[in-house]
Design a protein that fits this description.
The chain has 16 helices and 14 strands.
Length: 409
């Protein structure tokens, strides 16, 4: 019950999973993106798994596993460990079938994922600093309570379910040159690469991980799974410290390359997907686009399928990413400006800013901190601007008016 029965993942077993889950899984859009095609010099297609009911691809594997349970296993219930998306998938599809589910989640799991998992009917246990610690507790509870453990990635039934994405992608676009897949423990890329390569070995399969915790890349370099130290990343959905023992051989056999992206690149991809494609994506779902946008793959003129795997992002994190994206793009700036402390000084400064048509959105006026001398004050002003050129015009005007300032955002 607490250990997955080992068998082989094959194209045939993935096709069987496809038939099994088809009625309960959304066939998600696989859309051409004109904007990202122009940006990258390739023909880009976005496979939008964030359109699944629970917001991620995880439903495919979880449902395939659940549908294979015996009547006795259904009666006793299931347990899993997850940073969020697998948790929601298990909770949703278990509850729909009258099966009790218990999910162990790391304490720092985003609230949006914890709340959604509870809303889908699971008993949530917040425990551990990371996925590995949560999983250890889930396995203990599994044995104590005689439950069936549904592994997030290292189970052949899970891998088969995720592999249905590979079949679906080629059914929608059979002329792809490259597919990019996010990588955590390897269940998704193990299944998708098995399907894609068996259907068309000429298609290049590239995995993408966060550079903060690239366990599959490390496993490939050392030819065996290794355990990396804990690390925090905004791509928490793929923050797995050890590649799976079931998934690693599939990745080694079928995947052409695994590349990494850093935190700023992931955040920028989230921002651009939201602004240019009106697509809400979490960190783990944005790593593939981040790889293309930041030239982690050298392709030009190719048809590239990008898997947008999930969209369950915490709104507070999203707000921060949007703000940083605007700053990086030159559409938001904060200046710390020194001015004399007398009536009319602020009005005069505001007139200079207004003449440059910058929009003030926030101010903080201070006479005490920032090393202000007596008789002077400092004001932090956050402004909406039209880009880096507009910021240069604004700062030139402030210098011409005799203001000392520094950029703080």
């Amino acid at each position: 019950m607490c250990n997955a029965i080992r068998r082989m993942v094959t194209l045939a077993s993935i096709r069987e999973a496809m038939v099994r889950i088809r009625e309960s899984i959304v066939v998600t859009p696989f859309l051409h993106s004109e904007k990202f095609s122009r940006l990258t010099g390739n023909t880009i297609f976005l496979k939008l798994e964030n359109h699944q009911i629970t917001g991620s691809f995880k439903e495919r594997g979880a449902l395939n596993k659940i549908l294979g349970l015996t009547e006795d296993e259904r009666r006793r219930g299931v347990i899993s460990a997850s940073a969020g998306n697998h948790a929601q998938a298990v909770a949703y599809h278990s509850t729909k079938r009258g099966i009790k589910s218990q999910i162990c989640m790391p304490v720092m799991t985003p609230l949006v994922k914890v709340t959604a998992t509870r809303d889908y009917g699971a008993e949530v246990v917040l425990i551990g600093a990371n996925y590995e610690e949560a999983c250890e507790d889930a396995l203990r509870r599994c044995k104590e309570q005689s439950l069936t453990f549904i592994h997030p990635f290292d189970d052949d039934a899970i891998i088969d379910g995720q592999g249905t994405l590979g079949i679906e992608m080629l059914e929608q676009h059979d002329d792809l040159d490259v597919v990019l897949i996010p990588v955590g423990g390897g269940g998704l890329i193990g299944g998708v690469s098995s399907a894609v390569k068996e259907m068309n070995p000429k298609i290049q399969v590239i995995g993408v991980q966060s550079s903060k915790i690239a366990s599959m890349k490390a496993a490939l370099e050392r030819n065996q799974p290794v355990t990396l130290p804990p690390s925090k990343t905004i791509a928490e959905g793929i923050a797995v410290r050890t590649a799976g023992t079931h998934t690693f051989p599939l990745v080694r056999k079928y995947v052409d390359e695994v590349v990494t992206v850093d935190e700023e690149e992931i955040a920028s991809a989230i921002f651009l997907l939201l602004e240019k494609e009106k697509t809400l994506v979490e960190g783990a779902g944005a790593v593939t686009m981040a790889a293309v946008l930041n030239n982690k793959i050298p392709h030009r003129g190719k048809k590239i399928g990008i898997l947008v795997s999930a969209g369950n992002i915490d709104v507070s994190l999203l707000s921060l990413i949007i703000k940083r994206g605007l700053v990086k793009d030159g559409r938001l700036v904060r200046l710390r400006i020194h001015l004399p402390d007398h009536p009319g000084a602020l009005e005069k400064l505001a007139a200079v800013i207004a003449k440059q048509k910058a929009n003030i959105v926030e101010t903080l006026h201070d006479r005490t901190y920032y090393g202000v001398v007596l008789g002077d004050s400092v004001i932090d002003i956050t402004m909406e601007t039209r880009g880096t050129g507009h910021i240069l015009e604004l700062t030139t005007a402030l210098e011409g008016a005799g203001y000392a300032f520094e950029r703080v955002l």
